[in-house]
Write a structure and sequence with these properties.
The protein is an alpha/beta fold. The protein has eight helices and twelve strands. The structure holds glutamic acid and zinc ion (ZN). InterPro entries: Glu-Q_tRNA(Asp)_Synthase, Glu/Gln-tRNA-synth, Glu/Gln-tRNA-synth_Ib_cat-dom, GluQ/Sye, Rossmann-like_a/b/a_fold.
């Protein structure tokens, strides 16, 4: 069988509006797909309703449209996929690959976020408990198309991680792996803040017998004070009437050599230039990029 054609995706979390950093990630993912005639999907990662900003989903969708970033097929919402996540968690529990954890936040203080394994063999009931995936005492690594080799020892650096929270909400790590495989995603292009989630995702893929996608992590755009845009820092939504100049800025952030004549172009023209000139080799090989250093 031939290798599957390229399928990429943009998978925003509607905890806020799209900001310049998410535009850079969305644009890179779009260009990488379109440059090879691939499909580009949109998946709303709305797993955490309490943290969802009202109106954010609609705002994300309309921003993508006004910036000319058209996706293929139907938008998928993770909130429509709870039955699939539940079935997977159940199976992992039955196979002894996951277990219930009743540790309080307080009990986990002092472990720097690496779960000490307290409940591993406790046999707790799953009601009102978090569910954790057992990780092997092994290192998982991959070659990122921009960042190069990245590796983590799951046992020592990550620990057994949560796949379903105590409040019943499913974890990003679980949903992203299941959905990327279900949607046939061949190429994951996203911000470098997710580099350190990738080894956990590789382990899940291996466990579930899924093919491993290729990965490309673009630099995370940060504030002068080192903060990521959008999360701890409240970034304003991307204005619809500034699509063209902000796309140019995002192309600069991705190292693409936008010709001066395109400075006054419309989003559609800019994107079609960028698709035909997409050069992954020009993306800065750095995990972060300060917004203030951009033209
Ligand atoms: N939903 C994640 C985020 O917005 C991105 C997931 C991914 O691209 O794997 O940070
Ligand atoms: Zn525990």
């Amino acid at each position: 069988m031939n290798a599957p054609a390229y399928i990429g995706r943009f998978a925003p979390t509607p905890s806020g509006y799209l900001h310049f950093g998410s535009l850079v990630a969305a644009l890179a993912s779009y260009l990488d797909a379109r440059a090879v005639g691939g499909r580009w999907l949109l998946r709303m990662e709305d797993l955490d309703p309490p943290r969802e900003a009202p109106g954010a989903q609609d705002a994300i969708i309309s921003t993508l449209a006004s910036y000319g970033l058209e996706w293929d097929g139907q938008l998928v919402r993770q909130s429509d996929r709870h039955a699939e996540y539940a079935a997977l968690v159940k199976r992992l529990l039955q196979q002894g690959l996951a277990y219930a954890c009743t540790c309080s936040r307080k009990q986990l203080e002092g472990y720097q976020g690496i779960y000490p394994g307290t409940c591993r063999d406790a046999g707790h009931a799953t009601r009102n408990a978090a569910i954790r995936l057992r990780v092997p005492d092994l290192s998982y690594g991959f070659i990122d198309r921009v960042q190069g080799e990245y590796r983590q020892h799951l046992g020592r650096e990550v620990g057994d991680f949560v796949i379903r929270r105590r409040d019943g909400l499913y974890a990003y790590q679980l949903a992203v792996v299941l959905d990327d495989a279900w949607q046939g995603v061949t190429d994951v292009v996203r911000g470098a803040d997710l580099l350190d989630s990738t080894p956990r995702q590789l382990y899940l893929q291996e466990l579930l017998g899924f093919a491993q996608p290729r990965y490309l992590h673009v630099p995370l755009i940060i504030q002068p004070d080192g903060h990521k845009l959008g999360k701890s820092y409240r970034s304003p939504p991307l204005p619809a009437d500034r699509a063209a100049p902000l796309l140019v800025r995002a192309l600069h952030a991705l190292g693409q050599a936008v010709p001066a004549e395109l400075a006054a172009a419309r989003p559609k023209e800019l994107l079609s230039w960028a698709v035909s000139h997409w050069d992954v080799g020009r993306i800065p090989r750095s995990r972060t990029l300060a917004e203030t250093q951009l033209r």
